[in-house]
Amino acid sequence: MRPFEYTRAASPGEAGQMAAAPDARFIAGGTNLLDLMKLQIETPDALIDISRLDLAAIERTDDRGLRIGALVTNADLAADPDVRRHWPLLSRALLAGASGQLRNKATTGGNLLQRTRCGYFYEPSARCNKRMPGSGCDAMEGINRMNAILGGSSACIAVHPSDMAVAMRALDAEVETLSADGATRRIPLGDFYRLPGEDPSVETVLAPGELIVAVVLPPPHGGWQTYRKVRDRASYAFALVSVAAAVRLEDGLMRDVRLAFGGIGTMPWRDQRVELVLEGKAPSDKLFDEAARLLLQEARGHGHNDFKIPLTRRTLMAALRETTASFEEETSA
Ligand SMILES: Cc1cc2nc3c(=O)[nH]c(=O)nc-3n(C[C@H](O)[C@H](O)[C@H](O)COP(=O)(O)OP(=O)(O)OC[C@H]3O[C@@H](n4cnc5c(N)ncnc54)[C@H](O)[C@@H]3O)c2cc1C
Ligand code: SF4
């Protein structure tokens, strides 16, 4: 490991000022950053420890939403009674990620900013535009089983690996930040991540030194919700495909349909055209199939990951059947 300076920040403002320096990084739970440092993929000169800042509260907002501090651990967020009751797909997504030990350390802010799991990104001898801009992409012609089928560019097809971010995308979360100059802003999660384009090393719209202080959820959706994750083993594995679904029923028709996807996109994926196809209609397999076709019409496999196209279709159909079967039970009760 290369030498670096370690400083514990006393306040969010101080953390932002310290991290504005080039090659400074915040460290929260450290479950991703430390692995990257051991492999010398991340080589910061300065580590700003934010883990003791007062950013670990989960609070109700005046409009019945939820404000989740950036340092709330994945374990605490999944177990929060309000989250389990009103935003259950978020709790399910968190519990589907990593392991109990990791969830006890991993934080809300760090989870959103975890780096991809593309094998070539973690292999210093491989060509990788995300790790070393302009070097090429060994995944294109290589082992790309875990890579993206949507949102890729000729420079990169890496998947964003977070389960929590997929749930938050479906729930219309906003990221609250504090900049190095003291300015604050709220960024809808839909505008937070960048597609890889020509420079996949830049993954979000955050500026250097900009600290995530919280994630804000709007009032509860109120419908049936699920998070379905397909993976190689039942725990401790990243998604091949995941679907976060929330649907309300009014007079037998689907309303306020929200669908977000993990494991298939270069960022947590949402395509509102797909939701609109379902909106205001009675649930049926024919309609679900039409929605899946629309979602996947621009999907592109790269060989090893071609299987994700039919797998996504089946996972979406299963998630929609699960949520709408719940309303059939409700209607017949
Ligand atoms: C074996 C293993 C299996 C895993 N499986 C899954 C899985 O199935 N699903 C899943 O979703 N995740 C999985 N993870 C990833 C895990 O969830 C992340 O490593 C974790 O959420 C990162 O949070 P952290 O607090 O440890 O971040 P850190 O490692 O501390 O930081 C990650 C990045 O975020 C930045 N950062 C952290 N906090 C802030 C902040 N408040 N503001 C600005 N920048 C910040 C850091 O500078 C760093 O760049 C797995 C990890 C491992 C090691
Ligand atoms: S897909 Fe992206 S992360 Fe993977 S090797 Fe190519 S450039 Fe690197």
TrEMBL record:
Transmembrane residue ranges: none
MF (Gene Ontology): FAD binding; oxidoreductase activity
PROSITE patterns: FAD_PCMH
Enzyme class: oxidoreductase
Residue ranges annotated for the FAD-binding PCMH-type domain, each copy included: 1-222
Keyword terms: FAD, Flavoprotein, Oxidoreductase
InterPro entries: CO_DH_flav_C (IPR005107), CO_DH_flav_C_dom_sf (IPR036683), Diverse_Substr_Oxidored (IPR051312), FAD-bd_PCMH (IPR016166), FAD-bd_PCMH-like_sf (IPR036318), FAD-bd_PCMH_sub1 (IPR016167), FAD-bd_PCMH_sub2 (IPR016169), Mopterin_DH_FAD-bd (IPR002346)
Family annotation (SMART domains): CO_deh_flav_C
Protein name as annotated: 4-hydroxybenzoyl-CoA reductase subunit beta
Native species: Methylobrevis pamukkalensis
Gene symbol of the encoding locus: hcrB
